[in-house]
Amino acid sequence: MKFGIFYEHQLPKPWSEDDEFNLLQEALDQVVLADRLGFDHAWEVEHHFLDEYSHSSAPEVFLAAAAARTERIRLSHGIRQVIPNYNHPARTAEGIATLDLISNGRVDFGIGEGATRLELHGFDIPAKHKRAMSLEAAEQIANMMVLDPYPGFESEHFSMPCRNVLPKPRQKPHPPMWIACTNRDTIKLAARKGLGALAFSFVSPDEARSWVDIYYDILKSDECVPLGHSVNPNIALVAGFSLHQDRSEAIRRGQEGFEFFGYALNALVAQDQVPGRTDLWGEFQAKRGNRGTESKIAEAEAAGDAYSSCIGTPADARSYLHDLADAGVDQVVFLQQVGRNTHQNICASLQLFADEVLPEFKAGEAAREEKKSAVLAPYIEAALARKPWMQPIADEDIPVVRASVKKAQTSGGV
After folding, report:
1. How far is CA 140 from CA 144, 166, 290, 347, in A?
2. Which terminus of the chain has fewer CB atoms gathered within 10 Å of its CB, N or C?
3. pLDDT tens readout for residues 104-131
């Protein structure tokens, strides 16, 4: 099993002048630590205008800074908003490829569309068309990263003439592609499109097993027609994260932030918002008080050795992760930077996990991946054979881009 860390860059109110500066600097330090400790992925979301919930509007900048400071950890867009109103597909292709070159082939490319009116209406995106717009753009981004030149494209959502989109990524044909998933329907969509499933629902190991079975049954069937030029057969599941040798202390440090993540995500979709003035943290605190944490501690103590969660002790985490591994989950992504979880406590949890849990799950990892690849190889080959490929354009058909002037003028007068 692989392990990742995840960033929304949450910043509950009230804010002081240096809070955003400190938030990003500390997050970079955490990624550097995770790289040194042997974590596999650093996932960075892209959201816009979502006060408190996410101050991560330029993930390409953050991931580039992380690339310069790290050596091994994969730098993962989880997700990039690919609808053309957010980011023109050519600009996304250029950015992904550039980051892949800078990082020596360490990029993962997750795609998404956004769910809130704050984002969608801010960029004039019709909600009823967002899924189609997202999938169309993602497919063309993959084509742009592969074809030389890109033949061009035209639809009701965006158009682009024939151009050679540069640079091309280090990973061939392009970085692994993922899609954000929140339910069984999007798990099915991920499998049908040959995309990795980045699952943002907090499900039990039994429910995870059901999702895994659905995903791989479709991936192995004639329903799978890849969106990109490769298939990424993986399921990543997000989970709360706070470790301490004292279970109660781990819950005190991490449970509140984990609950805020869920509360804010729901509120931004289901409640009216006043840009710049809504106080999500204050509302959350008023509704929750301290009952949530103390109740969770009591519940955990009552469960005793049966308690399993990545908010707990290393033994609790081992139990929970073994259940997910047995269910077939390929990666667990830790929501460590949520609510007001402190930098100090986040780093301590990462260190404790690396010391007491990670080695157990790294043993035999290469052999497991080799076995999985061998089992899935014929299904992936068949899926790629079903894909209707965008055909390269013949040299004689490449349109000539006419000069804008007959003679260029320079400051030297030549």
Report:
1. 6, 14, 49, 39
2. C
3. 999 999 999 988 999 999 999 999 999 9
Q: Which are the contacts of 239, defined by CB distance < 8 A and separation ≥ 6?
A: 202, 309, 310, 320, 332, 333, 334, 335
Which run of H or E residues covers position 78?
Answer: strand 74-81
- Determine the Cα–Cα distance for residues 45 and 57; give it in Å rounded to an integer: 8
Q: Output the CA angle 287-288-289, nearest 5 degrees.
A: 105
How far are the Cα atoms of 4, 365, 368 from residue 372, in angstroms, in the given order? 20, 11, 6
What contacts 96, CB < 8 A, 6 or more positions away? Answer: 77, 80, 107, 109, 141, 145, 169, 174, 175
The helix or strand, by DSSP H or E, that contains position 110, with its residue range, turns out to be strand 107-112
Task: Look at residues 36, 28, 197 and name the one whose alpha carbon lies nearest to residue 110.
Answer: 197
Mean pLDDT of the chain: 95
Task: Spell out the residues 6+ positions from residue 375 whose beta carbon is closer than 8 angstroms to its own.
Answer: none
Helix, strand or coil for residue 112? strand
Q: Could you tell me which of 233, 224, 229, 228 has the C-alpha nearest to residue 382?
A: 224
For residues 36 and 140, give the distance between their C-alpha atoms in angstroms, rounded to a whole number: 36
- 130-186 pLDDT, tens digit per residue, is 999 999 999 999 999 999 999 999 999 999 999 999 999 999 999 999 999 989 999
Which contacts (CB < 8 Å, 24+ apart) does range 261-268 have?
A: 261/8, 261/10, 261/335, 261/338, 261/339, 262/202, 263/287, 263/288, 264/10, 264/52, 264/53, 265/53, 268/50, 268/53, 268/116, 268/118
Least Cα distance to 52 among 260, 204, 248, 251 occurs for 260
Looking at the DSSP bridge assignments, the partners of residue 163 are 150
Evaluate if residue 410 carries a pLDDT over 80: no
CATH 3.20.20.30 fits 2-397, yes or no: yes
Contact 147, 392 (CB under 8 A): yes
Rounded Cα–Cα distance for residues 147 and 76 (Å): 23
β 153-154/159-160 pair status: antiparallel
DSSP state of 122: G
Yes or no: say if 81 and 35 are a contact pair by the CB < 8 Å rule: no
Collapse the DSSP code of 127 into the 3-class scheme (helix H, G, I; strand E, B; otherwise coil) and give the result. helix
Q: What is the mean pLDDT of residues 3-19?
A: 97
Domain locations in the chain?
A: 2-397
